[in-house]
Specification:
Blueprint (H helix, E strand, L loop, with lengths): L2 H19 L27 H4 L31 E5 L1 E2 L7 E2 L1 H13 L2 E4 L1 H6 L9 E8 L19 H11 L8 E4 L20 H17 L3 E4 L12 H16 L10 E3 L14 E4 L3 E4 L2 E7 L15 E5 L4 H11 L13 E5 L13 E5 L27
Parallel strand pairs: 1-5, 1-12, 2-3, 4-5, 5-6, 6-7, 8-11, 11-12, 13-14
Antiparallel strand pairs: 9-10
């Protein structure tokens, strides 16, 4: 999508998004699931640090492909295919463009898994670290606004099973191949319950208790392979403000989040509130504030735009990553399109050291980040085919073929 097209799409969605996100103060509407008193059937604060490992930047290391007995695509590899970067906001009883019901969120996980998709973070995509089993496809779940319905601990210490994290954990227990994490874009200073997943202000609850709960949530996400993302301090419409305020809003949001992160964790992803750019566009990814402190983001997330190009595609722009809003029937229809045209989507070759793609895609190859390009014969069902449960079986490419 062109820059003009993205701006038009964002403008068309702005009125609805303002209502969902609480306008220019990051407020929340009623209707979030995940309140105290829900049945305590989800797992508690279990640690997966040993299983996931930690990277030098403090994030969870990407899981090795390992054994994956789950469904896979029946096409050959195409690591220049398109990737879904999904956008979610609130969970609740009403279904809409900015709300997803529990039933539909659970179904989203199943639809994707059954077609061979596996979760990765935005950090993994941007670094080219999409380390997935052969025949599977990456999908990025991005959760904006840190509302209570996304992640809530019940009084007994268990994760509320009606929250997005609770449902994610339940699905992972049933389907161990669903082992990666999502990207959680936090509003530390928004109006309750959109601040740190519904944590009350310090004047309503003991500061120590509040900070301990926030730290517990952040630790759980990092230990289970998720990524933490900045979404500004309180969801300011950056297009309305002068440069100094823009930088303060982004920088203070980063500082407030970093208080709960490991010292070596670098936030690499920033989500534009409402998809609105600062007047000085580069301030979305680099700026200075508070007497010379700075922020630098590898990735800037748009608010819409459809399926995104591969990070190995020459047109990949990490400072303008398209997202796909999980609105009613939108994801279902996109997956049906890929059922009919499976060659369009990114499918892994299972080798983290190569970037494999059919000859028809060779002209798209861009920055392979030190990996070896491998041209493979066109294989799998033509347009009109359908995904299956059998592992991918791409024909071997000529030895030494490079992009």
């Amino acid at each position: 999508m062109t820059t003009l097209g993205k701006q038009a799409a964002a403008a068309a969605a702005l009125a609805l998004l303002l209502a969902a996100c609480g306008g220019d103060r990051g407020g929340a509407e009623k209707g979030d699931a995940g309140k105290a008193g829900s049945p305590a059937t989800a797992g508690g604060d279990t640690s997966a640090t040993a299983a996931n490992g930690r990277q030098a930047n403090g994030g969870a290391a990407a899981a090795a492909p390992g054994q994956d007995n789950g469904p896979k695509a029946n096409t050959g590899p195409n690591e220049l295919g398109r990737i879904l970067v999904l956008e979610y906001h609130r969970i609740g009883p009403k279904e809409g463009e900015w709300y997803r019901s529990e039933e539909h969120f659970r179904n989203d996980l199943k639809m994707l898994y059954d077609r061979g998709f596996r979760p990765v973070t935005m950090r993994d995509v941007a670094s080219g670290n999409i380390n997935l089993p052969a025949g599977t496809s990456p999908v990025v779940f991005v959760f904006d606004d840190s509302s209570q319905g996304q992640f809530y601990y019940q009084p007994d210490g268990s994760i509320d099973p009606h929250t997005m994290v609770g449902m994610w954990e339940a699905f992972k227990r049933q389907n161990p191949a669903w082992s990666g994490g999502g990207t959680w874009c936090v509003l530390p200073g928004a109006v309750y319950p959109s601040n740190f997943w519904g944590e009350k202000k310090s004047n309503e609850i003991a500061r120590e208790q509040r900070e301990a709960t926030i730290k517990k949530k952040v630790d759980f996400l990092l230990q289970n392979g998720h990524e933490i993302c900045n979404h500004t301090m309180w969801h300011a419409q950056l297009s309305k403000y002068p440069d100094a305020f823009v930088q303060e809003q982004i920088g203070s949001g980063q500082d407030s989040i970093a208080h709960y992160l490991p010292a070596d964790y670098r936030i690499t992803t920033f989500a534009l509130p409402l998809g609105l750019w600062p007047r000085n566009r580069p301030l979305a990814w680099h700026g200075t504030y508070r007497g010379g402190k700075s922020y630098d983001y590898q990735v800037v997330l748009e608010v819409s735009g459809g399926a995104n190009v591969s990070p190995f595609d020459r047109s990949w722009d990490p400072h303008s990553v398209d997202r796909f809003i999980a609105a009613p029937n939108a994801l279902e229809n996109q997956l049906k399109r890929w059922d009919a045209n499976p060659a369009e989507r990114y499918v892994s070759d299972g080798d983290p050291n190569t970037v494999s793609y059919p000859q028809r895609e060779a002209s798209k190859a861009g920055n392979l980040r030190g990996k070896q390009g491998k041209v493979v014969p066109d294989s799998g069902p033509p347009a009109g085919g359908a995904p299956g449960a059998a592992p991918a079986g791409a024909a071997p490419a000529p030895a030494g073929t490079k992009s």
